[in-house]
Amino acid sequence: MSVLDQHLVPTWRGNYWRWFGQTHPPSWGERGGKFLYFARDPELLYGIAVVEIHDHGFKIAKVCLRPRTGKVDYVLCLYAETADRLAEVEARFETEYEAHPVVFRGWKSNALTARRARTRGLRRADPVLDKRQVGPDPWADADDDPWMDVL
């Protein structure tokens, strides 16, 4: 049974995203942002979204419906008002999700998104992990995607 079949959180589809949680994104402005996860299997990301919303108090998340053209990874954006929970989210990734083929990139602020900044060098709770690159950035040449400005 898929985590989506459990009806733990509301979910709906848009043109480019599957959304989880509340139906209207909060208006946090530039102080808000998202924690980013990447995986080749969207079901893994759906599961993380449901667990984080249902069990850990997050309000809204989205997973792309298809990888970028020429790429294989799906992305999960787990929204938060601030990066204050970064250490908690990173620790949970390392204990609960890291065994799966999922990459946690860190925190990306709405301010960086507005400037269309790439996902390299995102904030991580542990400065040592900041220096440890997990591989090439799967969204490095994302300018040709119509929805990258909301990522």
Describe the protein in words:
- The chain contains four helices and six strands.
- By secondary structure, the chain is of the alpha+beta class.
- It has one domain: RNA Cap, Translation Initiation Factor Eif4e.
- It has a six-stranded antiparallel β-sheet with strand order 1-2-4-5-3-6.
- The longest helix has 15 residues.
Overall average residue pLDDT: 78
Quick one: CATH class?
A: Alpha Beta
Radius of gyration: 14 Å
User: What percent strand?
Assistant: 15-25%
Given as residue ranges, the uncertain stretches (5+ residues, pLDDT < 50) are 126-151
For the record, give the distance between the C-alpha atoms at the N and C termini, rounded to a whole number. Answer: 29 Å
Give descriptors for this structure.
RNA Cap, Translation Initiation Factor Eif4e, 151 residues, six-stranded antiparallel β-sheet, disordered C terminus, single chain, alpha+beta, 25% helix
Quick overview:
With 151 residues, the chain is α+β, with helices and mostly antiparallel strands.
